[in-house]
Design brief:
The chain has about 230 residues and is of the alpha/beta class. It has 8 helices and 5 strands.
């Protein structure tokens, strides 16, 4: 871990003497992280905290003045741990294999107003995971779309109109339902298609080959029953 030679950085992790708390799931990793912090920021105070990271298998280092924190993850928690940490508000993510320079830049990310820092190799790993997941969706879509995702007739109607570029208001007027009901159907589609936006709903539905999101569905009247 952090195999480069130690080079104190005058702008790293706030002023000398800053106080940090460190949470841990493993005393060895916590000790290594603490030692490196003290090398880079002489005079810093590190206070142990027994609250560990939730199933991420790493340590959390918090800058007490800014409230921002970084985490050092073990290899077994990758790549999901990176996304989980960022979603929880982490300002920087490292692994036991990160370089000393990355650790220094991660400490700088604890300053108020600083940008989130994720090493390039972790960004690449997350991108590879996303591509692999997309390929898995595409490979299983032709034969398994109907069994993987069970959509109601109304959800299919809403999906077809979303695919046509209709707004919530236009969908409600076409189907004679309220905009609140439209939003409820969209939320249901988001859950079933593992999506967080209209764009992702369509992308995932098309990857699965669902007719209402593709050119396969040619019906002119979206209110016609699916059996027609």
């Amino acid at each position: 871990m952090f195999s480069d030679s130690v080079k104190p950085h005058e702008n790293t992790g706030g002023p000398t003497g800053a106080t940090h708390t460190i949470t841990r799931s493993g005393a060895l990793l916590a000790g290594m992280t603490r030692a490196l912090l003290l090398e880079l920021c002489p005079g810093s105070v590190v206070v142990a905290d027994d609250v560990g990271l939730p199933d991420w298998g790493g340590v959390r280092l918090t800058h007490c003045e800014s409230g921002r924190w970084l985490c050092v993850l073990v290899e077994s928690s990758l790549p999901d741990g990176v996304s989980a940490a960022l979603a929880a508000g982490c300002s920087a993510v490292l692994t036991v294999g990160s370089s000393q320079d990355d650790f220094s830049r991660a400490l700088e990310a604890l300053r108020p107003g600083a940008h989130v820092f994720v090493p390039s190799e972790l960004v690449k790993l997350m991108a590879q995971q996303a591509v692999a997941e997309r390929r898995r969706w595409e490979q299983r879509a032709p034969a398994n779309a109907d069994t993987l995702v069970r959509l109601t007739d109304r959800e299919r109607e809403v999906l077809r109109l979303v695919s046509a570029g209709k707004s919530n208001l236009e969908i409600s007027e076409t189907l004679t339902i309220s905009t609140n009901t439209v939003r409820s159907h969209l939320r249901a589609l988001a859950v079933k298609l593992d999506a967080s936006s209209r764009t992702r709903i369509l992308a995932n539905a098309r990857a699965l080959g669902i007719a209402e999101a593709t050119e396969l569905d040619k019906r002119s009247d979206p209110r016609r029953p699916l059996s027609a």
